[in-house]
Amino acid sequence: MSTNGEQTLDVEAVRKDFPVLQRTVYDRPLVYLDNAATSQKPRCVIDAVSRYYEEINSNVHRGVHRLSMDATSAYEGAREKVQRFLNARSTKEIVWTRGTTESINLVAQSFGRSQIHAGDEIIISHLEHHSNIVPWQLLCEERGASLKVIPMSERGEILLDAYEELLSERTKIVAIGHVSNALGTVNPVEHIIQRAHARGIPVLLDGAQAAPHMKVDVQVLDCDFYTLSGHKMFGPTGIGALYGKEALLERMPPWHGGGDMIKSVSFEGTVFNDLPYKFEAGTPDIAGAVGMGAAVDYLDQVGLDAVSAWEAELLTYGTALLDAMDGVRIFGTAEHKAAVISFEVDGIHPHDLGTVLDREGVAIRAGHHCAQPVMQFYGVPATARASMAFYNTKAELDTLVVAINKAQELFA
Amino acid sequence: MDELRDLYQEMILDHGKRPRNQGRIEASTHEADGHNPLCGDVLHLTLTVDGDTVTDARFEGEGCAISTASASMMTDAVKGKNLGEVKRLVDTFIGLATGESSPDPNELGKLAVFSGVSEFPARVKCATLSWRTVEAAISGSDEPITTE
Ligand SMILES: Cc1ncc(COP(=O)(O)O)c(C=O)c1O
User: Fold this and answer.
1) Which domains are seen in chain A, by residue range?
2) Start-end of H helices in chain B
3) Number of folded domains in chain B?
4) Predicted local distance difference test score (pLDDT) of residue A3
5) Catalytic site residues of A?
6) pTM of the full predicted structure?
7) Facing B39 at nearest CB: one of A359, A382, A406
């Protein structure tokens, strides 16, 4: 798999790792182009989850018995894998959550309630997923703070001059998507972080769409919080993580109360547990964490540089194909993009397009992609979106074009 | 393509592209809003009911071919019917679209072109949105109808 010391990707080989890619829908090979919604799972992740249940299932951090110790070490081992994957300094900085949505809510509730007050401001961008909008709106309402939104350009890029103007002594946190799920824009997060840090403002990056596609190093980025969704990076649903700088997490109060997040409890008072357990109340998704650990190992083995390179090729290929079609308009033409193509076809509503494509075996997303402000920006209720992963092929993009042609014929 | 042709019959494509009864009745007697949060389809329906009879029906909104055609043909169908007949037609149509009943084609007339919808579970709500909305309008409900 290697040439000149660089990893390259053998797409036919990696496809064999994903059982679902072998299936057909309506007697046609599945062409799965809805990876931004959720990714498929490789055999090793599926096996890790079933092996957990078959061999070591028990509760963690509790038992003196053998199974509980095995479960605990699998669970904590997975945390170490995620720590290495993000290059966090320590496992204290990796909090298991249900995913990006819960991670952002955790920060909004815990950091927000303790450190955001009336008159303070929170900066997000116009490109955000609803899960990086609504938790902040709830917080603003509760605290009397206000939400400032960095505008975007027609190409789908954050306007950095406007960002600069929004930053002020009232800004208490900047929360930005690393990669936009609706358009694929890779935001200039290094610059955004550097400008915020110049004023001592912490930055949260929503990494849901970045981690499956590119190497992420939280120390190089120097972000203060980073969020992951396991299911978008080839792991199970229901599991994810929050990275937070230890010093920040240390100062934040617990969010959920319950078992595991305490050292001792009495009716006079409770002593909270150390990081990261302070934020992990109740029995966690142990199997999910183990599965996410396996997904991270798998991504390491495939190599994220190879993944990024192949996806860039797919994006260029797919964009050229759709650009050449009559009546197709692409939304989001940022200079730096992940392999997401949001588009519309003249005279065909995205849902009708989605239905026709489905019968051709092609799975795309038709809708607002939980990013209604982006839709409002372009003045459309919905778009069609083809979002790729490293197991997609150019031939599949050819199939997409044939399927769009069929829809155009039907609606002609 | 056969099942797709069953879904997107000529009449549906035609009403989807050139919907009838679009707009808003200024002096309407009944109105209701419909919303399909999953798709973002929105619909505002206004009716004129004279005595017990629907004399006019108009809609405005945004949606896919199925929901637009459904609203267009629903507004055509209810005009001239009394409220009891409209209610029965709502039930009959929803039975057809969900596949829960197979109504007599004579009862439905042109609306029978929606029979293919039941094979497409993801699209049933598109077809039923306008019917649920007219049901709300004539029962005087102020709550916007949502398909979720
Ligand atoms: C950019 C972005 N942020 C956040 C989320 C929410 O992630 P989850 O549903 O896994 O919590 C998504 C998923 O759709 C996303 O694409």
Assistant:
1) 2-42+303-410 (3.90.1150.10), 46-300 (3.40.640.10)
2) 2-7, 10-17, 65-78, 83-98, 105-108, 124-138
3) 1
4) 41
5) 370
6) 0.94
7) A382
